[in-house]
Design a protein that fits this description.
- This protein has about 280 residues and is an alpha/beta fold.
- It has one domain (about 1-280): Metallo-beta-lactamase, Chain A, CATH 3.60.15.10.
- Helix content is about 35%, strand content about 25%.
- Helix 2 (about 70-80) links the parallel strand 5 and strand 6.
- Helix 5 runs antiparallel to helix 6.
């Protein structure tokens, strides 16, 4: 039993311990998952924003172009790690962190891929799709699947050979994800769809994180159940006539979220999460 516990702890350490690489005074967190897939993260305050790199046979696929100001730095980072230039950029959702530097990479010859709703918002996109698009880069087959998890333009990006799914802002493993315009029921149904893409060994990569780079299916399932419990409790208390402020301070609500990694940092935003649920009732 002790040997099994030690092995589990070693596995968790290897899975969640990356290396730091500094480019232009920005310290990126670098996790190499296999010979052609990296999960990279850029710090914004105390939060790390995940993005992905897939090394294809004749170029790199960048999952999320990140912010325009840092595009040249990210370009240097990719060149440093892979020796290649960006051939495709895949936009995972309408958040600025995931598409802001589209034009920069397009000007360097990259092909920009985004869901129709992203393109319709006048974001720079070369290849758009309604439900799904598949890109084969030799080392990896990439399915980009429309989910509408939080917004109409949200997608999940499944690396079939590596069994890795990038979820963007539709999932986080350190706190509660906002459901935004989709509402919590649509959001949770979309996460069920995302889980169906993979299996028990799939790695699920959140858009925002602190210490945990990716989750397994059990981690995502646990987060979904917590989110549902939170939303249904907010709904129950709202129907009873409690104000947003009163719901935020309610013991039932605090009990649900108290064990989340970033509780002490983010508990001041609970009222916004309560309002997020109420907006979809």
């Amino acid at each position: 039993m002790l040997k099994r516990v030690i092995l589990i702890l070693v596995f968790l350490f290897i899975s969640h311990e990356g290396k730091a690489l500094e480019i232009d005074n920005i310290e990126f967190d670098v996790n190499k998952l296999n010979e052609h897939v990296y999960i990279l993260a850029q710090p914004y305050g105390e939060t790390l924003i995940n993005f992905g790199v897939v090394v294809g046979k004749d170029g790199v696929v960048l999952i999320s172009s990140m912010m325009l100001d840092h595009a040249p730095t990210i370009e240097k980072l990719i060149k440093n790690l892979t020796g290649s230039k960006v051939k495709y950029v895949i936009n995972i959702d309408p958040d600025n962190y995931h598409h802001h530097a589209n034009k920069y990479f397009a000007s360097k010859g990259a092909i920009i891929v985004g869901q129709n709703n992203i393109k319709n918002k006048n974001k720079f996109v070369d290849i758009s799709y309604e439900d799904k698009v598949t890109i084969d880069v030799g080392t990896e087959v990439i399915d980009v699947v429309h989910t509408s998890a939080r917004n109409p333009g949200d997608s999940a990006i499944y690396l079939k050979n590596s069994n890795i799914v990038f979820l963007g802002d539709s999932y986080r493993n350190d706190w509660i994800a906002f459901s935004n315009t989709s509402g919590y029921k649509t959001h949770l149904e979309a996460l069920k769809l995302i889980l169906s893409l993979g299996n028990k060994t799939t790695k699920y990569v959140p858009g925002n994180r602190k210490s945990v780079v990716y989750s397994n299916v059990h981690g995502v399932d646990k987060a979904m159940k917590l989110h549902l419990n939170f939303a249904e409790t907010v709904k129950e208390l709202s129907i009873k006539g409690l104000s947003v402020d009163a719901i935020t301070k309610n013991g039932k609500i605090l009990e649900i979220v108290k064990n989340l990694e970033r509780y002490n940092e983010f508990k001041g935003y609970l009222n916004e999460h309560v309002q997020d649920v109420i907006n979809s009732i």
